[in-house]
Amino acid sequence: MDALVIGPPDGLAGAVVRRLRRHGAQVLQAIPADAADRERAAWLLEEAGSPGLVVLIETAPYQALDALLGQVPGELLLVAEVRTAAVGAPPADTGTWLPQAKDGLAVVTLGRSGRRWHTLDERRAEPLGGERAAAHVLSASGAAAASSR
């Protein structure tokens, strides 16, 4: 497998999988419960054939991220979803801890309001549907090369 995408099946994960597959990548899709602890995460990574890219779409408290850290052989991309009341609105809980990018971990933060996503760092955020949000995630993370195979 080229990539492993972990996230809720009805959210952004499906759009990321479709985008990667459209560009020729072999992708395995999983749900966060599949990587709920270190043992399950290790099994999932083995099942995926030690992929070069793991995309994790998760909200706080980032349980699957804790299980995956240090086990991913390639790049780990966390899409930190933060709930907002409306597109462009600030997060309801400003005290939410957000992981920081470090060696082997890239972090993209997106606000989510219903079935729409938006960036949190712009004054006039526009709503992003699943496909546009997936494109933003892959390009902002440096994983654009993986999406253009």
Write up this protein.
- With 149 residues, the chain is α/β, with parallel strands linked by helices.
- It has five helices and six strands.
- It has one domain: Rossmann fold (3-Layer(aba) Sandwich).
- The protein has helices at 12-22, 38-47, 63-68, 130-140, 144-147, and strands at residues 3-6, 27-30, 53-58, 75-83, 105-113, 116-119.
- Strands 2-1-3-4-5-6 form a six-stranded mixed β-sheet.
- 39% of the residues are buried.
- The model is unreliable at 144-149 (pLDDT under 50).
SSE diagram, text form:
Blueprint: E1 3-6, H1 12-22, E2 27-30, H2 38-47, E3 53-58, H3 63-68, E4 75-83, E5 105-113, E6 116-119, H4 130-140, H5 144-147
Parallel strand pairs: 1-2, 1-3, 3-4, 4-5
Antiparallel strand pairs: 5-6
Helix pairs in contact: 1-4
